[in-house]
Structure formats: structure tokens, C-alpha cells
């Protein structure tokens, strides 16, 4: 059962240099109750994809389905109601909190806007319950952001996302700005919240070791397209797409016995006016001159996952 | 300072370095007896969480600390000379650049945006290698080639904004090589880079170590990078050294409770979220740091003595140092 599905989703930005095809024809789904990890290098469109799904950015074309309903064209009151059900946590908690507002204010806003609670008493109970889930205490309600550590701030951001009891949360690099020991704490709390509130996550990150540890399925993006998507274990065991392979081989793993053998060469090409053919062809070791420089491969079902590569047609 | 240090011999030795910062809020006891030895031809990882003193240690080595820093004791020996005793001019002329170089996290802020990169590398060459301008221009190309930048002639005419992050970081390395430094201090050099670019960059560093016996003090909080390129690793916590060991020992058999907690909280060491370790509490503020072992308030093995007296670094096996009274109890 899909909680979120995109069909041929595109988001293009106009720039002086040309059209930036940030999300270029992406059709993926997030299953109910799962964590879908989205990985890729910077500029591959993973953040834009997350935001377009949430309608924080308007898609250029294509559609987004939430619980089977097309939400691409929702407006006004209907869109506002939807905001309650899908939420986002950003990378930098510093920038996501208002320095002049206390933790109480941050949690109060969404509750008031969406008229979730009737009495102040119930509201407080709810806030404290969510803070507790996030490992914070009632006393933190009267704190300002500058009185909290980086990890605590991010926990407040997650609490704010949770307080409307959403079903789906986009986590956009939620731990990249944090230290490792704090990161592991946040990941545990996110896992706890997921079980407690029956959540589905889309976890965007460039940290492949991290995504591997926490995702049920994983989607690999390259230059605006999803090039491989499937079960995390299977993909890590045997990556099929040449880019997935090269990416995984380039990533150092925290084990001194395993070293990077053949790092990916070349730079990520610019997403401005990307080629019509396979965008990875220029860096691909298994490139076939006859096809790869001519056509763009579709994302097709193969080996119980989906791959966009001419090798697997 | 022409004398050569043989591979495997100590190049930089920091001994019992104590350092504090005078701030409006009070005295920050940033370093409390730091001991660190970087040998010739090794990549030495310095790891720890934000505020543990990694960067302060490296800046102190180059004499680049702010005016409010006070050294309270200890010495920083480079080829046997105490850098803390040197005057600013001696540091500038004799140490920075031609002996020790440093690269930072964000290469964009280290390069001058209004000169092409060839120009900037040439400047180092003219200072340290030759006075002949033609010869210098030729050397620029060979330095760029040494860091595996494709088409050096083209790259040397490019301005920083025309290069990718990874290329810029390699230009920084080329500048360092042009100075003919023996020790490179790299402070989170790949944090701003993508994985594929990071892999290329790390490969260049490894090759320089192998080929040219370059020593590197590599500061990072990325354990995967540490396991990839470091030979020896030192773990810092709250301005103190917790553990120093070769990279295999540290990852397989961490002996300090903090080092253990740190390594077992890294995704990839632990394959599933249920196995992640978390360290209770938060990093201490160093204005009034915990007494004794600064990790004791968060440590499950802590006993009374840990509050009273700071444990000294003890060599528990060859080249494996731990500052903990109860390391034998740590599983």
C-alpha cells in the first residue's frame, strides 16, 4: 500500500544559464510504514524531490498521490488540511527555529493553526507527551533555541513535525549537522517515534552508511532521475546500476580492513540542460557507445527492483 | 631546518599541552594535557566531537590562535624544536608553509577569488623553491599534475569559481606541495565534498604519503574516512586525549569507554539501528569542565577516582595508549 506515489514528476528551474532539471521524470512510491532512503551526490535533486512531494515547491509537471489521492492541484483550505498529514524536518535546526520563540511557541503554532486541541490543558499534555518521546522534558517548553544544544534543537524540530500527528515525514539530512554520538541518539528517537505513531519516512541523505542502516528500501538518484530503487539489503548486496556500484565503491566504510578500490572518476555533470541520453554515460565504465549516448533509459522492473540502465532492458 | 627525519621517527611531538582561552564568560580550559605524536610518513587521524579541542591543537601547532589564548604548559616539538618558543617571524619564515601547511574545510574561502589558481600556486613556488619566474610557471604545472588534476595547463588558468570543490581542494594540496612542506594538517578537508570527489581526494593523499613520505595530521569526525586513510588514530574528548592506537586496533578493540561509545554509534560499524550505541548526556562546557577525567559524568565505568584525578595516558600494549583507570573492564 502506497502512502506517497509520484508519477512522471518534474521540477525545472529557469536560470540564466539554462533550464535546471532538478527533478526529471521521477516515478517512485513510499510504502506505508516504511523508511525510504534517498541517496545521491549534491545537486542530484533529492532535496527538490522531497519538497515537491510535500507541495512546498510546485511541480513543473507530473503528479503526486497521497494515500491514492492526487494532491498535485490541491489549493487553499484543502491543501492546508493536507499539511497536517505530511511534514518535514530540515538539515539545519538552527535555521528552522525562530530565535525569539520558545519551544512552547514552536509547538503551539501548528496546534492552533490546525485547531487540533480544545483546551490548554489538553494541548500541554500533548506537547509534553511528544517532548518525552523525543527525550526532552516539560521544562524545555520555556526554553529558547539558544539555550538548547544542536541535538536538542533538532529534537524540537522533530517534535514540532510530530505534534500534528502526521502520517508521512520527509527527513532532509536531519543529522548531517550533528556529531556522531548525537546523531545516533536522534536516529534512535526517530525510530521510536516511527513505531509509536505509525509513520512513514522519506529519509534524504548523502551518507550512504547511514541510509543503509536505517532504510527499508533505498532510491539512488543521479542528475534529477531515480536510477535504481529497491530493497536496501538486496541493493547493497548486489548493486546493479553502474552508478550505484561506483557510488557504493567510492564510499569509505568504517572498517579499516575494507578500503575504497576504484573511486568514481570525474565530476557530477551540471543539471543545467542535462543530456537527453543517459546522464551517467560520460562516467560509466560499462557504457555502450551504440545506445547510451543516444537514448535515456527508463526505470524498469527487473530482479525485484527497478533499474534505469540499458544493460538491464 | 634542513635535517631529515627518517620514516617512522617522530616528526611532531605535542607533550602535555595545556591551553586556555580568556573569554568574557570565564576561562575556557580548552586543552588539558594533550599528548600527540605524528611520525614521518604516517597519516594520523585526530577525532572527537565538536568542541573537543581538535582544531585548537592544530592551530596551536602553527601559532595561529587568537590573542585570548594562553598556553599554560607543555611543548610542541617539531623536529625537536619547541614551536611555542619561536617568535612570530620565525614561525612565518621557518615553519608555516615550508615545514607545516594546513588546509581547511572550505577550500573556496582559502583561495583568492580574483587570481587564477596558477598564479596562487606560483606565489608559493617563488617563495620556497625558485626565484626564476619561467621555472616557477613550469613547476606550477608539475605540482598540479602531482595532485592528479587533469589537463594542468588548462586548470592553471582557471579562477577558483570555475573549479569544483574537489578540484579546489586539490589545488590547495598543490600549493602545499609547492611549499615543500613535510607535515600537512588537514582540518575536515572533505566535509564539503561529495562522496565520489572525496574518494578521489583521499586517494591523492594516500599516494602522497606512499610516494613522498608526507606526514598528515587528519582532523575529522567522519569515522569512515578515518578507517579509510589513517594509520594511527587519536581520540580526543573535552580537551583531553582518550586513546591513541593504530586504526585496526581502535576499530576492533577500542579500550577507552568514550572511544568505544563513539565507534559503536557510527552507522556502518553497526548495521542496524537497534544496535547503535548512544552515549548518555552531552559534551561538557569547558568553562567549568568536570574534574579529573572529563568523561566521567557520562561514563558507565566511572568510579570515585575518576572524579578526583585525571588518568594519565598508559601504554597498554605496544603503541596503544589509553587514558582510563578501568580500561580492562571495557568490553
Task: Tell me about this structure.
The complex is a heterodimer of chains A (313) and B (331). Chain A has eleven helices and 13 strands. Chain A starts with a strand and ends in a 6-residue tail after the last strand. Helix content of chain A is 33%, strand content 23%. Chain A is globular and about 70 Å long. In chain A, helix 5 (120-133) crosses helix 6 and helix 6 (150-162) packs parallel to helix 7. Chain A has helices at 46-53, 76-83, 93-96, 103-113, 120-133, 150-162, 180-197, 208-214, 232-237, 242-250, 289-292, and strands at residues 2-15, 18-26, 29-31, 35-39, 61-66, 69-70, 86-89, 168-172, 200-204, 217-222, 225-231, 300-302, 305-307. Chain B has 331 residues and is of the alpha/beta class. Chain B has two domains: 10-99 and 183-329, P-loop containing nucleotide triphosphate hydrolases (Rossmann fold, 3-Layer(aba) Sandwich); 108-180, no CATH class. Chain B is built from twelve helices and twelve strands. In chain B, the strands form two sheets. Chain B has an eight-stranded mixed beta sheet, with helices on both faces. A four-stranded antiparallel beta sheet of chain B has the order 2-1-4-5, covered by helices on one side. In chain B, strand 4 and strand 5 form a beta hairpin. The longest helix of chain B is centred in the middle third of the chain and has 18 residues, at 195-212. The chains are: A alpha/beta (313), B alpha/beta (331).
Mean residue pLDDT of chain A: 92
Strand order of the largest sheet of chain B: 6-7-8-3-9-10-12-11
CATH architecture assignment of the largest domain in chain B: 3-Layer(aba) Sandwich
Separate helix tally of chain A: 11
Give the helix level of chain B as a range of percent: 25-40%
Number of extended strands of chain B? 12
Low-confidence residue ranges of chain B: none
Secondary-structure content class of chain A: alpha/beta
Q: Distance between termini of chain B?
A: 46 Å
Q: Give helix and strand order of chain B, one letter per element, not per position.
A: EEEHEEHEHHHHHEHEHEEHHHEE
Class inferred from helices and paired strands of chain B: alpha/beta
Integer count of domains of chain B: 2
What is the CATH superfamily of the largest domain in chain B?
P-loop containing nucleotide triphosphate hydrolases
CATH topology of the largest domain in chain B: Rossmann fold
The two chains with the largest interface, and their residue counts, are: A-B, 42 and 44 residues
Amino acid at each position: 500500500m502506497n502512502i506517497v506515489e509520484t508519477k512522471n514528476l518534474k521540477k525545472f528551474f529557469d536560470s540564466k544559464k539554462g533550464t535546471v532539471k532538478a527533478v526529471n521524470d521521477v516515478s517512485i512510491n513510499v510504502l506505508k510504514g516504511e523508511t525510504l532512503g534517498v541517496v545521491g551526490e549534491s545537486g542530484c535533486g533529492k532535496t527538490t524531490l522531497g519538497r515537491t512531494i510535500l507541495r512546498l515547491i510546485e511541480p513543473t509537471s507530473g503528479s503526486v498521490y497521497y494515500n491514492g489521492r492526487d494532491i498535485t492541484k490541491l489549493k487553499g483550505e484543502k491543501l492546508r488540511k493536507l499539511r497536517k498529514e505530511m511534514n518535514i524536518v530540515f538539515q539545519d535546526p538552527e535555521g528552522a527555529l525562530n530565535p525569539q520563540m520558545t519551544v512552547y511557541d514552536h509547538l503551539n503554532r501548528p496546534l492552533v493553526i490546525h485547531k487540533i486541541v480544545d483546551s490548554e490543558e489538553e494541548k500541554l499534555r500533548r506537547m509534553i507527551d511528544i517532548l518525552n518521546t523525543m527525550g526532552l522534558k516539560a521544562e524545555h517548553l520555556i526554553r529558547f533555541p539558544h539555550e538548547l544544544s544542536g541535538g536538542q534543537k533538532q529534537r524540537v524540530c522533530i517534535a514540532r513535525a510530530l505534534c500534528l500527528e502526521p502520517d508521512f515525514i520527509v527527513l532532509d539530512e536531519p543529522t548531517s549537522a550533528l556529531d556522531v554520538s548525537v546523531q545516533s541518539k536522534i536516529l534512535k528517537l526517530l525510530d521510536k517515534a516511527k513505531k509509536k505513531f505509525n509513520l512513514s519516512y522519506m529519509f534524504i541523505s548523502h551518507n550512504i552508511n547511514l541510509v543503509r542502516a536505517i532504510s527499508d528500501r533505498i532510491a539512488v538518484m543521479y542528475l534529477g532521475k531515480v536510477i535504481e530503487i529497491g530493497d536496501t539489503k538486496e541493493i547493497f548486496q548486489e548493486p546493479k546500476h553502474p552508478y550505484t556500484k561506483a557510488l557504493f565503491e567510492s564510499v569509505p566504510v568504517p572498517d579499516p580492513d575494507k578500503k575504497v578500490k576504484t573511486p568514481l572518476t570525474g565530476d557530477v555533470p551540471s543539471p543545467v540542460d542535462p543530456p537527453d541520453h543517459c546522464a551517467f554515460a560520460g562516467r560509466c565504465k560499462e557504457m555502450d557507445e551504440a545506445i547510451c549516448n543516444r537514448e535515456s533509459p527508463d526505470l524498469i522492473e527487473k530482479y525485484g527492483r527497478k533499474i534505469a540502465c540499458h544493460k538491464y532492458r | 631546518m634542513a635535517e631529515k627525519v627518517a620514516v617512522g621517527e617522530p616528526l611532531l611531538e605535542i607533550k602535555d599541552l595545556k591551553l586556555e582561552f580568556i573569554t568574557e564568560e570565564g576561562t575556557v580550559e580548552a586543552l588539558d594535557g594533550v599528548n600527540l605524536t605524528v611520525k614521518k610518513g604516517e597519516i594520523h587521524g585526530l577525532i572527537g566531537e565538536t568542541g573537543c579541542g581538535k582544531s585548537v591543537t592544530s592551530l596551536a601547532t602553527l601559532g595561529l590562535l587568537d590573542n585570548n589564548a594562553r598556553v599554560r604548559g607543555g611543548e610542541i616539538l617539531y623536529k625537536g624544536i619547541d614551536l611555542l618558543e619561536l617568535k612570530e617571524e620565525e614561525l612565518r619564515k621557518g615553519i608555516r608553509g615550508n615545514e607545516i601547511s594546513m588546509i581547511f574545510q572550505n577550500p573556496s574561502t582559502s583561495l583568492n577569488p580574483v587570481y587564477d589558481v596558477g598564479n596562487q600556486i606560483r606565489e608559493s613556488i617563488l617563495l620556497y623553491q625558485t626565484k626564476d619566474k619561467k621555472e616557477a610557471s613550469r613547476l606550477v604545472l608539475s605540482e598540479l599534475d602531482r595532485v592528479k588534476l587533469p589537463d594542468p595547463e588548462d586548470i592553471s588558468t582557471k579562477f577558483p569559481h570555475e573549479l569544483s570543490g574537489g578540484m579546489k581542494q586539490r589545488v590547495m594540496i598543490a600549493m602545499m606541495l609547492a611549499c615543500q612542506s613535510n607535515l600537512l594538517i588537514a582540518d575536515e578537508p572533505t566535509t564539503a565534498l561529495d562522496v565520489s570527489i572525496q574518494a578521489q581526494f583521499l586517494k591523492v593523499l594516500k599516494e602522497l604519503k606512499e610516494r613522498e613520505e608526507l606526514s598528515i595530521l587528519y582532523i575529522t569526525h567522519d569515522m569512515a574516512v578515518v578507517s579509510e586513510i589513517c594509520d594511527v588514530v587519536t581520540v580526543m574528548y573535552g580537551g583531553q586525549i582518550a586513546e591513541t592506537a593504530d586504526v585496526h586496533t581502535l576499530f576492533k578493540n577500542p579500550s577507552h569507554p568514550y572511544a568505544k561509545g563513539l565507534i559503536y554509534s557510527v552507522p556502518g560499524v553497526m548495521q542496524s539501528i537497534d544496535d547503535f550505541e548512544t552515549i548518555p548526556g552531552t559534551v561538557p562546557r569547558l568553562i567549568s569542565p568536570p574534574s579529573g577525567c572529563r568523561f566521567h559524568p557520562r561514563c558507565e565505568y566511572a568510579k570515585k577516582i575518576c572524579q578526583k584525578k585525571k588518568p594519565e595516558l598508559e601504554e597498554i600494549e605496544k603503541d596503544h595508549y589509553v587514558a582510563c583507570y578501568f580500561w580492562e573492564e571495557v568490553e
